[in-house]
Amino acid sequence: MEMAMAQNRSTIPINVGVVFDMDAWVGKMGLSCISMALSDFYSSDHGSDYKTRLVLHTRDSKRDIVAAAAAAVDLLKDLEVKAIIGPTSSMQADFIIGLGEKAQVPIISFSATSPSLSSFRSPYFIRATLNDSSQVKTISSIIQYFGWREVALIYIDNQFGEGIIPFLTDALEKINARIHYRSVIPEFAIDDRITSELHKLRSMQTRVFIVHMTTSLGAKIFTMAKELGMMSEGYVWIITDAMANELNSMDPSTIESMQGVIGVKPYVPRTKQLEDFTTRWKLKFQQENPTILNAELNVFGLWAYDSATALAMAVEKSRNAGASFQKLHTSGNTTYLEAIGVSKDGPKLLQAILNTTFKGLSGDFQIVDGQLRSPAYQIINVIGNGAKGIGFWTRENGIIKDLSLRSTKNGHSISKTNFGTIIWPGDTTSVPKGWVIPTNGKKLRIGVPLKHGFSQFVKVTRDFTTNTTTVTGYCIDVFKEVMDALPYYVPYEFVPYVTPDGETTESYDDLVYQLFLGTFDAVVGDTTIFANRSQYVDFTLPYTESGVAMVVPIKDKNRNKAWVFVKPLTWELWLTSFCCFVFIGFVIWVLEHRVNEDFRGPPWHQVRLIFWFPFSAMVFAQKEKIVSNLARFVLIIWFLVVLILTSSYMASLTSTLTVEKLQPELLKSNEYVGYQQGSFVARLLAKMNFDEDRLRPYSTPQECVDLLSRGSANGGIAAVFDEIPYVKLILAKYCSKYTIVGPTYKSDGFGFAFPMGSPLVPDVSRAVLSVTESEKMVQIEKAWFGKYTCSNSSASPSSNSLGLDSFWGLFVIAVVAATLALLIFLTTFMHEHWHIMRQSNLPFHERIRILARNFDRKDYSSHTFKNSELRDAVGVLGHMDCPQSPHDNLSMFASPQTNEPPSPSISSHTEQIFHLPGEEGGTPPSHEENVAVSTQESVIGLAIDLNAGR
User: Fold this and answer.
1) What per-residue confidence (pLDDT) applies to 520?
2) pLDDT for the residue numbered 700
3) Residue 483 backbone phi and psi in degrees, to 5
4) What are phi and psi of 802, to 5 degrees?
5) According to the model, what pLDDT value does residue 6 have?
6) CA-CA distance, 109 to 98, in Å (whole number)?
7) Number of neighbouring beta carbons within 10 Å of residue 13
8) From CA 869, how far away is CA 702, in angstroms rounded?
9) Between helices 571-592 and 629-659, what is the axis angle to 10°?
10) Alpha-carbon distance 162 to 59, whole Å?
């Protein structure tokens, strides 16, 4: 006992203020948890050795901002506390943190969650709880998961309620969702005010409600919503952690009215330490508050426990000695607030708290940027008497069913298996679509053009008997399909646009400009997306083919042109083809000259053959046989090239002769051209330097055809410029008479126009993509335009000429094949006659001359010459023992002892010996050659005699 008293006398008491709403549940629970935290900490093995002890001084803020501020001033000025735990609400904290900064005293709140309170505003404010903005990504992930695009936000009208709005708005915009309506309810609203707001929400199309308010006010809202039938099938209610954290302490009747509600709250892992503390806390709290039955601990109590533990550790770590405040030098007129001093230990204590980390009851306790580090969030579903966990959300994985799962390569997953089974309002498992047709929703005024021509696109019919207007057409049907594809309902009505002084829409620019003036909410029709128009309206993605084309009558102007046959190919392709023909002819001649009699003869005959053979092969009219395998390989490749080239030439020539539609030189000949009345094409023609006097408008397809049929010289037009959808409509009926020629000029097609910044544009654009990629679009086109059966109507004369860029690959293949065959032949030839190149006693040019002369002679080793008499003679000589002439450098015969047939080298040598003066390719003989010739003649005679004797 004396040792314990001595130890108590040796500890340093540290005054700490506590400012709570003592009559509120959070205040009662928080104070109880703080007291148990200090008791547990200082009785532990670790805390018992501490020299400091926190001494609590509690003050009741009485749910009032002024009372909370007065309590804080009293604690700072009179008791000179080193830190303040509290206050309970964000509104109270907004004022107190200013006092803490002035006195350099840390203000630690475990329940002030408003994002407007920030450590950047005051470094001495420490949020030992989670910022409300940390849960908005969890909420937006839920919205994205189910594909809802609009929500209504119901929040309390104070700093706590408003703080989450900008963060939630930004998070929803990132997933292409938006807050359709904000319902602001005062903290102390009467029942009639709440009922009025709920009636307003029920009349809207949005059925997804996000509730962010205190537990007491939220309970009243859900009770009344159930009475009004707003907790039935089709509704979606999502509550933030302000209510989700306190579900276990709500009245059972309130829980009954919240069946099917989805909520998000910080995830607290279940541990043995937490279970033991919960049991001890219930017993202690019941003893201290016998009137409160079935009290349940929530996360705010755990944060209060961890906050007190962290403060006790930080005070010891900062070696706080309980130094007094430093008083400021003030005058006699000093106010009460100005008399507050500055804590000498404040800066050190602040740093110690920020650097304190440990494993607390709520999880890992760590202060990051002045607030508690955000853990994973748990998603709950109110079912029966409480809440059931249906999933989790983490920064790494997004929504997952189990925290043990790891993130995928694609990041956040939105798989339909990420949630457990959800019971929605109305006791159903069917996911609500999030919207209904509103009972009093305002209809969008959709402006449509009123015109007489091209009624297939937009047609306005007035029934004067019933005084009703019916709008039909291709554009209207597409718009209806697009609106049906939206994930929510949008009511609308069509309103024809008529100029004040006319009966029809004269200018589409004026129609689109009505959006900017606020006359319409959207414009639907054959309205082209144009840069000038996009400066004051927003367009959706186009739903038609884009471009402006020129249409002219089909005329054959080439029947009397003598040189039309050269037009199918460009001059580059003609020149390349000729060069390739000559090259292939030369290669074939080289490969066949020594082995084929058809490729021999006088020089002029052989040159003619080089040019003749590849051209005759083009029509398969060649008479010469091909005996060399290499030549056959080259010819097979060449036949492929010739076949493709001739086929392409014939197709292009046929097109040129039968459907050649020359684009008239409109500018040079000063021809008249046509354009659709009210279209932007008139401005396009002006940019192309067409004279305005030479432009003639038309309003209907029939009028356009009449102008084209008359021609420019007879009061009509030579060509018409219009957008491709209109052109297709004309050609679908008159494709045998008219066709598209020339280039297609850039435009962006038809689109739906909305006011600048309209939130509908992204959703409608996505719906346009969905409709245009479906079979429904094809059905609509067939219904209004019929079946488009014309083929090759868009061929232009400029595109009929085939260029080298279309065939250069074929020429490369042919040239490479021919070159490869030539290289193989030359390599083989040089290998057979390499002994000539090794004759060092002859000049180089003489060796080349001998090689050339040998190339010009027949190759008797070839199978084509095996049956000749000369071959037989050489065969006989091959068995004779004849001495070699001393003047023969080329080794005329093989070894006289051999009984083997002559080798190819012997044959080639023999062919050289048998080459007589006066033969083709020969040269005047020298003296040595004459001697050799005489010897050769004798040998030939002997060979003939021997052959005859046999």
Assistant:
1) 92
2) 85
3) -70, -35
4) -80, 135
5) 40
6) 14
7) 11
8) 86
9) 160
10) 28
Interval 532-542 mean pLDDT: 89
Distance CA 555, CA 179 (A): 61
Output 44 or 118, whichever has higher pLDDT: 44
pLDDT of residue 332: 53
CA distances from residue 570 to 650, 728, 742, 798, 820 in whole angstroms, order as listed: 14, 31, 18, 11, 29
- Give the span between the Cα atoms of 547 and 545, in whole angstroms: 7
| Residue 480 token pair | 């209806």
Domains of the chain listed by start with CATH number: 12-129+285-328+337-372 (3.40.50.2300), 132-270+375-400 (3.40.50.2300), 444-546+751-785 (3.40.190.10), 564-657 (no CATH), 661-747 (3.40.190)
The beta strand positions in 593-737, using DSSP E, are 673-676, 695-698, 719-723
Average pLDDT over the chain, rounded to whole?
A: 79
The pLDDT value given to residue 655: 63
How many other CB atoms are found less than 10 A from the CB of residue 944? 13
Q: Which residues of 906-942 are buried (b: 16+ CB within 10 A; e: fewer)?
A: bbbbbbbbbbeeeeeeeeeeeeebeebbebbeebbee
Nearest Cα neighbor of 786 from 750, 733, 734 is 733
Which pairing describes strands 342-343 and 358-360: parallel, antiparallel, or unpaired?
unpaired
- Residue 654: CB atoms within 10 A of its CB come to 12
For residues 523 and 496, what is the distance between their CA atoms, to the nearest angstrom?
10
DSSP per-residue letters across 895-910: -TT--SPPPHHHHHHH
CA distance 306 to 110: 9
- Please state, in angstroms and as integers, the Cα–Cα distance from residue 502 to each residue in 477, 499, 506, 518, 560, following that order: 27, 5, 8, 21, 52
CA distance 594 to 603: 14
767 in Cβ contact with 486 (< 8 Å)? yes
Q: Own/partner pairs for 56-59, CB < 8 Å, 24+ apart?
A: 56/16, 56/17, 56/18, 57/15, 57/16, 57/17, 57/18, 57/81, 58/17, 58/18, 58/19, 58/20, 58/22, 58/31, 59/17, 59/18, 59/19, 59/20
CB atoms within 10 A of CB 459: 19
Contact 108/353 with Cβ under 8 angstroms? yes
Note whether 515 and 495 are within 8 A (CB).
Answer: no
Q: Label the pairing between strands 12-20 and 52-60.
A: parallel
Provide DSSP, 353-415: HHT--EEETTEEE-EETTEEPP--EEEEEEETTEEEEEEEEETTTEEES-TT---BTTBSB--
Cα–Cα distance for residue pair 475/543, rounded to 1 Å: 9
DSSP classification of residue 750: B
Range scoring the smallest mean pLDDT among 19-23, 114-118, 214-218: 114-118
What is the helix (H) or strand (E) element at residue 517, kind and residue range? helix 508-517
Which strands, in side-by-side order, build the sheet including 738-745?
A: 695-698, 673-676, 719-723, 548-553, 738-745
CB 325 within 8 A of CB 342: yes
Check if the beta carbon of residue 658 is closer than 8 Å to that of residue 556.
yes
Q: Read off the pLDDT of residues 781-819 as tens digits, 9 standing for 90 and up.
A: 888 887 655 544 444 444 456 677 777 787 788 888 888
CA distance 417 to 923: 95
Using CA atoms, how far apart are residues 199 and 195, in angstroms rounded to an integer?
Answer: 6
Specify the residue for token string 């509908």.
Answer: 760
Q: Which two tokens stand for residue 690?
A: 């067409």
